[in-house]
Amino acid sequence: MKAVNFYGARDLRLEEIPEPKIKGDTDVIVQVKAAGVCGSDTSKYAKFGPHTVGMTLGHEFAGVVVEVGRGVKNLALGDRVTGCPALFDGEDYFYLKGEFARSDNLHAMSAKVPGCFADFVNMPAQNLVKIPDSLDYQSASMIEPSTVVLHGFYRTSFTVGDDVVIVGAGGSIGLLCIQWARVWGARHIIAIDVDDRKLEMCIQNGADKTINAAKENVLEVLAEYTHGLNADLVIEAAGSAITASQVFAYAKKGGEVLLLGIPYADVHVERFYFEKIMRSELKVLGSWSCVSAPFPGKEWQNSVHFFNKKAIRPELIITHRLPLVKAPDIFNAIVDRTELVGKALLLPEL
């Protein structure tokens, strides 16, 4: 089969490898119909290289079940599924508490086991979530990033009528934050980014106001939008060391800051921004992964439900649909910012 394998920084290769085989009673083989390129994938591609040299990349996907282990009871041949990429090497204190995202044994597919940028993938049955016939594979491949957003939202006290600021709103995670904030009942959704083209996508996805941080004074414009109060909830979705150090200034006194983006760099916070945490008595929340108890969690069930009801519309975010052979090209376009990319999908059957 074809697979996109990761050998080092800026080194992706489309290769022919053996198809995965059933090894355990609860293994399931899925034919991949659509797989999404994640920001964490491109960050590793640009900077760090793979956890395991030569590993098949990718952890966002949807497909169809083509083979099951003899112990699998919840899935059958032909079932349409999406996959939770959270895997565990063992059981520790937090795993046994059902706080799976906090387990030291947590790792994602494509780190130690092959990912989904391939024709087929082997997954544990418990990690596969059925999708209805009315939900297309391309949309369903975005359920995983949706669960990342929902996992973060569940950490907050965000409620109907709150004002929300989303920083780095033009990326796929930021755009999903906008859509979920609308479903959640936000009063005003304010999108911050540095690219006017991405800010236009924010409006298309439901943002009420936009601020271009490269052209405008964010604090002044935000104060104007919110009558000097700022936002009840600020979400850092850019994964930038710069924005992660500044978001505290955008929250209302007594408000919350949710850190969703992964900077992959040291974050240095100037005194002005750090004192906002203290003087404004902010609650700062970290969020990691996409799972809760009972595994894989309500993040998955609710994402499938609201995707299927068209309350969340991934088609507004998807900008590229490409064959596996084009993986290096789209990775370079994202890293080098030569194209406007919302969500890029790899479609093995192309």
From TrEMBL:
GO molecular function: oxidoreductase activity, acting on the CH-OH group of donors, NAD or NADP as acceptor; zinc ion binding
N-terminal signal peptide: none
Pfam family, one: ADH_zinc_N
Cofactor entry: Zn(2+)
Taxonomy, superkingdom: Bacteria
Ranges for domain Enoyl reductase (ER): 8-346
Keywords for the protein's UniProt record, in alphabetical order: Metal-binding, Oxidoreductase, Zinc
Family indicated by similarity: Belongs to the zinc-containing alcohol dehydrogenase family.
Alphabetized PANTHER family for the sequence: L-THREONINE 3-DEHYDROGENASE
Protein's recorded name: Galactitol-1-phosphate 5-dehydrogenase
Source organism per UniProt: Rouxiella silvae
